[in-house]
Amino acid sequence: MPSPTDRRYTKEHEWVRVEDNVGVVGVTDYAQDQLGDIVYLDLPSSGTQVKQLDKLGEIESVKAVSDLYSPVSGEVVEVNQEVIDKPELVNQSPYQEGWLVRVRLADPAEVDKLLSAEQYDQLIADSEDSGG
Asked: Is this model's pTM higher than 0.85 or not?
């Protein structure tokens, strides 16, 4: 499944879609597929300051616990309570209902440093070609 082109991506498999200087953040379809059934999310509360590519929280699946990284710097303005209550939404709808947090951007130019959908899809293809 090609990645949606209306957002930018990190090499750690998070995405951000910017709406009016607020970045909606989630994990990619590839990430949720690799993790397997997601059972728990540890996300920052509203008001938390996050930095680009620093740890944002944790995502726990039946296979492993993985760190989540923020694609952008800024202030968390909303946490998706639905994914806290039903973490499986990340598996079912990683690009829609399964978003994690909304972050008011401290520096909108940071988004330009992230991967485009095409670059991200190439990263996945290269990693699968090398067996990783």
From this structure: yes
